[in-house]
Amino acid sequence: MWFEGISGRVGVGRLVRVGNATEGLTDRLIRAEREAHTHERDMSEFERERIDLEHRVVRMEAELDALRRRRLEAYARWWHARDDRDRALHVCRRLRRRINRTRRRR
Q1: Is the pLDDT of residue 11 over 80?
Q2: What three-state secondary structure class fits 3?
Q3: Rounded-to-integer distance, Cα 81 and Cα 11, Å
Q4: Separation CA 4–CA 15 (nearest Å)
Q5: Using DSSP, how many helices (H) and how many strands (E) does the chain show?
Q6: What is the radius of gyration, based on Cα positions, of the chain?
């Protein structure tokens, strides 16, 4: 475990001489503080990256929303053009039939 040996004991039930124990603990404290500082620096870098990614995600979601609206508008325009085409073709068919009937009557 990461906290083993914090008590200053070396081995089971044995104490280290007082002078060495203090120096050893001081060295360990310095190393642990240095490691904590390194992790803190890494954490702030990761936090900046996370915030940057969050901003990018928000922008991309807004762009995606705009693109979805444009897609629906384009489909609506296509649908209306299709209806207009079908209506025009229907009128053409009716006029052709009328012309054909008129020609046959003559």
Answers
A1: no
A2: coil
A3: 86
A4: 14
A5: 1, 0
A6: 40
